[in-house]
Amino acid sequence: MCAVKKYLYLPLALLLSLTACQSQAPLSPANALLRSQNATAKTSPQAQYFDTALNDYRWARMEAQRWDFSARLAKVEGRYVEENGRSFEWTFYFSAIGKQKALKVSNGQKQEVSNSFFGGGIFDGSWQIDSDAALKAAKEKGLKNFPVYSMELDSFMRWEIRSADGWFQVDARTGQASLQTQVQTNPLVSQR
Questions:
Q1: Cα separation of the two ends of the chain
Q2: In degrees to the nearest 10, what's the CA dihedral of 74, 95, 65, 48?
Q3: Tens digit of pLDDT for each residue in 71-120?
Q4: Which residues, 6 or more positions from 20, have their beta carbon under 8 angstroms from its beta carbon?
């Protein structure tokens, strides 16, 4: 009977010794799925967020403060902004005292770029008008076609909006809008 018990434990001991030699524990199906998703996420493009400029800025600011705690927002750019002020393509530029480079944050990607932002920055408390409210103000001045090509917020605290309808400016502190240039139609084309 003792000899039989020895042979019953032999396969168990052999199995345990083989699993101890493995570099990784065997994966359960759920762990294997998560690991494969993470592997594809590293090779796929960064996640994009469809949001307004001010909401997206909160995430960009955290990245900038990791880069330099004294980082200040210098410029905001948005491309193909929808009527509700949301875009996938918000880009934020930050500068910091003593740094030769500026930080560009876009869709979770960070990159140091040349610092061409002379002096002024955008102070958090002075930026009151988000991209959605700026577009609403521009619509009152004649903006009709969406998405707009681009929106930029500069250190003068004004939104510059470029669209098929013209170029609009909106004060980012008050929301007051003005039409800078209007797109001229060709009279020969419109007579057809």
A1: 105
A2: 50
A3: 999 999 999 999 999 999 999 999 998 888 999 999 889 999 988 876 66
A4: none
Q: ω before 147 within 30° of 0 (cis)?
A: yes
What the block records as the tokens of 94 is 């930050």
Contact 108, 46 (CB under 8 A): yes
**Secondary structure E strands in 107-176:** 109-114, 148-153, 158-163, 166-171
Place of tokens 């939104």: 159
Where would I find the H helices in the chain?
Answer: 2-21, 29-43, 53-67, 131-140, 187-190
pTM of the model: 0.69
Quote the percentage of the chain above a pLDDT of 70: 67
**172 burial type by CB count under 10 A (0-12 exposed, 13-18 middle, 19+ buried):** buried
- For 120-141, b/e burial (b = at least 16 CB within 10 A) is ebbeeeebebbbbbbbbbbeeb
User: Is the distance from CB of 71 to CB of 112 less than 8 angstroms?
Assistant: no
Compute how many other C-beta atoms are within 10 angstroms of the C-beta atom of residue 43: 6
| DSSP designation for 116 | -
How many other CB atoms are found less than 10 A from the CB of residue 40? Answer: 8
Instruction: Give the strand order in the sheet containing 177-182.
Output: 109-114, 101-106, 89-95, 72-81, 148-153, 158-163, 166-171, 177-182
